[in-house]
Write a structure and sequence with these properties.
The complex is a heterodimer of chains A (720) and B (337). Chain A is α/β, with parallel strands linked by helices. Chain A is 38% helix and 14% strand. Classes of the chains: A alpha/beta (720), B alpha/beta (337).
Chain lengths: 720, 337
């Protein structure tokens, strides 16, 4: 049963060549004219041949991707029925969809695109040779590699943003009458991310919030080797109708199939409601080129699927309907085969990415050629407060958000309890009343929804500021940023952007609310994502300014984590009760990205502490107390945890004999390791040590302090 | 046996038959049946024949540049060149053309029969023979044939003012069009570059909304019935591919007689599309004249994914393994026929 790549290719040719007129059938020209069906057939054959040659060239190590669209070619009908500017998050088996959609934008070179992505050529227009992805800025298709439904939550966000941009009169990337089309396989519907997205769309529809999205489930009844239970997709989705309108297409009657797909898009577009379009497909030739499906599937099942080959079905129908003759079919096949072979022959000779710098060049968006036009604005719905007023960190953040929303009509807040309640810590207090529910949005209780909605809206030109209620809650949603948002620039050479600010109250030392979930003290989950920005202010003056810096960075496509030390939110005093040394004026400016801050008492000091967040507060206490004893130390606040001014930090550190790195995070997940590596290697004359919290989860109640770095420990280290 | 070379055939536009081309048809194709048919058609309509025009002792601007005469000369010469391509060596995988060359491409691809092609081309030339507005040509590449984006932006800003239109994106040159007074103002506004900007004498504001009446007239005169689906893929002035078995004739007719008459003709894009989507071994530029070869070269350089990065590397590659073969150049012609 096992066939080589060449044999599969030949077999496909043979089966098409054998077709004869078998019975009279007809094309309903009112639904779609015969010539259009022939065009669809050409697209499908092109898709198949490109896939088959990919396998042939893989045997020579000249292509690098063999998950094919074979059996999913009826997706070209979806490409035909939807609009080229209906934002599309594609499935990786959507080559025929891509080719069909590209016929609507003549500037595109769809075969060239597809083949150059298979060979990872630098000329691949979307990823520049970084990955095989289906994407194209001209076709409103962000590059998609997801196999785990992680693109579904953001698709809902993008859909939500379309009517919302109209309501807010914003100049958006997506047309007001467009829908979002989001594609995935049947097995994928079991993923938590898929269920989250479906849940969110359901919730929005139930609450009558306009959300024009079409979920396209490409149901081939198998996920790698595991068969999907008969009727499972239907079982999952029928109950959600009418809030998510369900359409089913099995392609037994192609006239009706196309009409049904058209109806599905029309319904979503007209009613601004979610649609679930369930399409019956087959998967041919295994999961990927190296997958021997004969080892886990019955031969009869494999042959049964082969008999349902959509291209054979369409070809037979077109012959029976006299839309093409048998000879014309062969002529189409041979012409396309030669065309694709010739493109491959050139593509394999194209240069690939050669250097680390070349590969990494698109980690950060290239602002010169954005595909997304951010909203033009000249609104200034904000007045600075009295500069003499003193603020806590929480108050300053609240003020800063007022300023940001006042000045940026595309800015919006998304989170739990951030509406009327103003958030758990009142950071968003008053914003709902001032800016309304369209811009200050309470989300369902789900972090994946919050982040997915944010990045999906961002892609349409919004400037989302999401709030995750506590750091520990971020972890169940992390792939929205790790797998999706942060890779968008990398896989699209900056052509697509989804800049966002994610505010996350976190870290330990809370006195009122204890336990691990509210005091999580590791930032590793952010630090291992390339090219994101991690900001961590330690005081009110920095906080407002750093938040504004992050907003400006997000406007340029950057992903910004803004970690807010909860324990410092309402702190007023540094040493003594009512000394109010931890109140600061509101900073009307921004702070330059990466800029560190030195707290120095005198030039005579030869000891330095490098720290951030709560560590800065503790170190400043230690600094004051030691100063009273005549011991001078200087303290550096990093502020930016993965993009701090490293050269400047080293230059400063080299002047000190003793350097202590104070990191409030737990020992084995601390930034201190990186800092030690940087500082110790650059300052061989200095003694460099680290002080971190214990490698433990945080316990409830007063015992938590036993785990954490304290002021006394810092003092002890400096002056034993 | 080595495989045939994949060839894209290009048909030139207006202005490619000039003084130096006089006699070129006679020299290659004297007594060719197609030439005789063309002459007969001209005689029937009381117009000068191709043989008379091409065989004249002197090139007379008022006669040879007269729209229907000029169009017929270019049509006849390029089509005969097309017929003369050695199809034992070359497989023609796609056909395209520049501006009026689109009509010739339609004929070559089999979308128009000979007689219909004679009539169609003459009709379109007659309709626009009395200039409506005009055209000027201006380079957007530097001396190395690399696009100068500052210049391009500057020119695009002029286009935005709605009185000037981009008529043809012609491989490194913009052909801009508008009413005569607007063009005169533009002539003064554009920075002088070599001999440019240069007015193209006698031309209408082709491919702009100024020709809307002409387009309507064309549709009144020319019936959809004369068109057929092409037998070889055709690439139009938007980069759209018209395939033999999936072409809707009504759309094809509407594009040819209306859309492209009033909207920008992106010749560069058509060439780029051919190169990327058909992966040809060569582009064959039919005659008369070889001026368009430079436009093809600059269109390919702009892609930045071929072996050519600039004029120098392109010309070097042309010597070693030519990608553009012009039938008006003797040495290159000998490789084709």
């Amino acid at each position: 049963m096992y066939l080589s790549a060449q044999e599969i290719h030949q077999d496909f040719h043979n089966r098409l060549r054998k077709l004869q007129l078998t019975q009279d059938e007809f094309i309903d020209e009112k639904i779609l004219p015969a010539k259009d069906w022939v065009e669809i057939l050409e697209t499908q054959i092109s898709s198949r041949i490109a896939d088959l040659y990919s396998r042939v060239y893989k045997t020579r190590d000249q292509t690098f991707y063999t998950i094919s669209s074979a059996g999913h070619e009826m997706m070209s009908l979806v490409g035909k029925a939807s609009r080229y500017n209906d934002l599309c998050y594609a499935h990786y088996r959507d080559a025929s969809f891509y080719l069909q959609r590209a016929l609507k934008v003549h500037e595109c070179n769809p075969l060239f695109d597809l083949i150059h992505s298979f060979v990872v050529s630098k000329s691949d227009q979307i990823s520049g040779g970084r990955h095989k992805v289906l994407g194209n800025a001209k076709l409103f298709m962000p590059p998609q590699t997801s196999t785990i439904a992680s693109h579904l939550p953001k698709a809902v966000g993008s859909a939500l943003s379309i009517p919302r941009s109209k309501d807010l009169k914003l100049v958006s990337y997506l047309p007001y009458d467009s829908v979002v089309t989001c594609h995935f396989g049947d097995a994928t519907l079991n993923h938590a991310t898929a269920l989250t997205a479906i849940n969110c769309a359901h919730w929005l529809s139930y609450n009558k919030v306009p959300t024009p999205i079409v979920f396209v489930c490409e149901d081939n009844e198998i996920g790698i080797s595991q068969k999907t239970t008969q009727g499972w997709i239907n079982e999952q989705m029928r109950g959600k109708d009418p809030h998510i309108k369900y359409f089913y297409v099995d392609f037994t009657d192609l006239n009706l199939a196309y009409q049904c797909i058209v109806n599905a898009y029309h319904f979503s577009r007209k009613n601004k409601r979610p649609v679930f379009l369930h399409l019956k497909m087959v998967r041919l030739y295994g999961h990927a080129g190296n997958d021997r499906e004969d080892l886990y599937r019955k031969k009869s099942d494999i042959l049964n699927d082969l008999a349902k080959d959509p291209i054979i079905q369409l070809s037979q129908w077109l012959i029976n309907s006299k839309a093409v003759t048998k000879q014309e079919l062969v002529s189409i096949l041979d012409r396309i085969d030669q065309q694709i072979l010739s493109i491959y022959e050139k593509a394999i000779k194209q240069p690939k990415l050669q250097s680390r710098n070349e590969i990494m060049a698109s980690l950060i968006p290239n602002f010169k050629k954005p595909a997304v036009n951010l909203v033009k604005h000249n609104l200034n719905n904000y007045q600075h407060p009295n500069p003499r007023e003193q603020y806590t960190l929480a108050q300053s953040l609240n003020q800063s958000l007022h300023e940001i929303l006042g000045k940026n009509p595309q800015a919006c807040l998304i989170g739990l309890d951030i509406g009327k309640k103003g958030g758990v810590y009142n950071i968003t207090s008053g914003l709902f009343k001032k800016f309304g529910p369209a811009r200050v949005m309470n989300a369902p209780l789900d972090e994946t929804t919050i982040l997915g909605t944010g990045i999906g809206m961002s892609l349409n030109g919004f400037l989302p500021i999401c709030e995750i209620q506590f750091l520990a809650y971020y972890h169940n949603a992390q792939d929205q940023i790790r797998g999706e948002a942060s890779t968008l620039s990398f896989f699209s050479q900056g052509q697509f952007q989804n800049g966002i600010v994610i505010r996350i109250p976190g870290l330990a030392y809370q006195e009122g609310l204890g336990g691990h979930f509210h005091n999580d003290n590791t930032l590793s989950v952010f630090r291992d994502i390339p090219a994101v920005i991690i900001a961590c202010p330690s005081n009110a003056k920095d906080a407002s300014a750093m938040l504004k810096t992050c907003v400006e960075q997000a406007k340029q496509g950057r992903i910004c984590f803004f970690i807010e030390p909860i324990a410092l939110y309402h702190k007023k005093d540094l040493l003594d009760e009512k000394d109010e040394k931890w109140l600061f004026e509101y900073n009307q400016e921004e702070i330059q990205l990466g800029q560190i801050k030195v707290y120095s008492h005198s030039k005579a000091s030869d000891q330095l502490i490098i720290t951030y967040g709560n560590g800065l507060y503790l170190s400043r206490q230690a600094q004051e107390k030691l100063n009273e004893r005549g011991i001078k130390i200087d303290v550096i606040d990093l502020r930016w945890l993965n993009c701090y001014q490293q050269e400047k930090l080293v230059e400063i550190a080299q002047k000190y004999k003793k350097i202590l790195i104070v990191d409030e995070c737990r020992e084995k997940a601390a930034l201190a390791d990186e800092l030690y590596r940087v500082i110790a290697s650059a300052c061989p004359q200095s003694t460099v040590t680290t002080l971190c919290s214990a490698d433990s989860f945080i316990s409830l109640g007063p015992s938590a302090k036993k785990l954490l770095v304290s002021t006394d420990e810092i003092i002890e280290r400096i002056s034993p | 046996m080595s495989r045939k070379k994949r060839a894209v055939v290009i048909f030139p536009g207006r202005g490619s038959y000039n003084k130096s081309e006089l006699g070129v048809i006679q020299s290659h194709y004297k007594d060719h049946p197609f030439l005789n048919d063309y002459d007969q058609y001209k005689v029937q309509n009381n117009n000068p024949t191709i043989t008379e025009l091409d065989g004249a002792n002197v090139f007379q601007r008022n006669i040879h540049y007269h729209g229907p005469n000029s169009a017929a000369l270019i049509h006849c010469c390029s089509y005969l060149d097309y017929l003369n391509i050695n199809q034992e060596n070359y497989e023609i995988v796609a056909i395209t053309g520049n501006s009026m060359g689109w009509y010739l491409a339609c004929h070559a691809a089999g979308a128009l029969e000979d007689q219909h092609a004679f009539e169609f081309i003459e009709t379109m030339a007659s309709i626009t023979n009395n200039p409506i507005g005009g055209q000027l040509i201006y380079p957007i590449t530097n001396q190395d044939w690399i696009v100068d984006y500052e210049i391009k932006q500057l020119v695009n800003e002029k286009i935005d003012d709605s009185k000037i239109f981009l008529s043809i994106d012609y491989g490194g040159f913009y052909i801009l069009a508008g009413k005569k007074e607007s063009l005169n103002i533009l002539m003064k506004k554009l920075p002088a570059r070599d001999i440019y900007p240069q007015i193209l004498p006698g031309n209408s504001a082709f491919h702009t909304p100024l020709l809307q009446d002409a387009a309507h007239k064309a549709q009144e005169i020319i019936s959809c019935q004369v068109f057929k689906a092409p037998q070889i893929p055709l690439i139009d002035g938007r980069g759209k591919i018209w395939s033999p078995h999936s072409t809707t004739i009504e759309e094809f007719y509407h594009y040819t007689t209306f859309n492209q008459v009033i909207s920008t003709y992106y010749f560069s894009l058509a060439i780029q599309k051919c190169y990327r989507e058909f992966a040809p071994d060569v582009f064959i530029l039919t005659g008369p004249g070889s001026y368009t070869a430079g436009a093809v070269a600059r269109s390919l350089i702009e892609l930045n994914d071929g072996p050519w990065k600039d004029k120098k590397s392109f010309l070097a590659q042309q010597k070693e393994k030519p990608i553009v073969l012009s039938m008006a150049i003797h040495e290159q012609r000998s490789l084709i026929v």
